[in-house]
């Protein structure tokens, strides 16, 4: 089992798929990394040599923002919006949808389970 960017990559999967387990790397970036290093798409993680794993680790560290740094930057961006008290920041603060979705119905994922309102029944 290879460990890259603090994440254990499953050894039975293809390298391209295994890299997507790292936060911040999707299928397109994983394919790009494999092409840079010259790893065939059908190779499995357990077939990689130690030198190839080190190469992957170096490419990710130098060219991409992943895991903790990416999570920290995202959290800081949201905190900045909330401190500015802009519309998007207020929506984050109130745990409502940020990107213009309706809230009269739906939005249950963001708002949480429905809360009963007293005095509604006849």
The main sheet comes to: 2 strands, antiparallel
Low-confidence stretches: none
Overall geometric form? elongated
* Gyration radius from CA atoms, angstroms: 21 Å
Strand content: under 5%
Protein name: Small ribosomal subunit protein uS13
Keywords: Ribonucleoprotein, Ribosomal protein, RNA-binding, rRNA-binding, tRNA-binding
GO biological process, one term: translation
Family: Belongs to the universal ribosomal protein uS13 family.
Explain what this protein looks like in three dimensions.
The structure is a single chain. With 122 residues, the chain is mostly helical. It has two domains: 2-65, Helicase, Ruva Protein, domain 3; 68-111, 30s ribosomal protein s13, domain 2. The protein contains six helices and two strands. A two-stranded antiparallel sheet has the order 1-2. The N and C termini lie far apart (62 Å).
Briefly characterize the structure.
By secondary structure, the protein is mainly alpha-helical.
Mind sketching the topology for me?
Blueprint: E1 2-4, E2 7-9, H1 15-19, H2 27-37, H3 50-63, H4 67-84, H5 87-93, H6 108-111
Antiparallel strand pairs: 1-2
Helix pairs in contact: 2-3, 4-5
């Amino acid at each position: 089992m290879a460990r890259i960017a603090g994440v254990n990559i499953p050894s039975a999967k293809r390298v391209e798929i295994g890299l997507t387990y790292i936060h911040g790397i999707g299928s397109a970036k994983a394919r790009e990394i494999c092409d840079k290093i010259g790893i065939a798409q059908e190779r499995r993680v357990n077939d990689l040599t130690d030198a190839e794993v080190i190469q992957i680790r170096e490419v990710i560290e130098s060219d991409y923002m992943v895991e903790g740094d990416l999570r920290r930057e995202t959290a800081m961006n949201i905190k900045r919006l909330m401190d500015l008290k802009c519309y998007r920041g207020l929506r984050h603060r109130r745990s409502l949808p940020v990107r213009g979705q309706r809230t009269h119905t739906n939005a249950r994922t963001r708002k949480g389970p429905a809360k009963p309102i007293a005095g509604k029944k006849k």
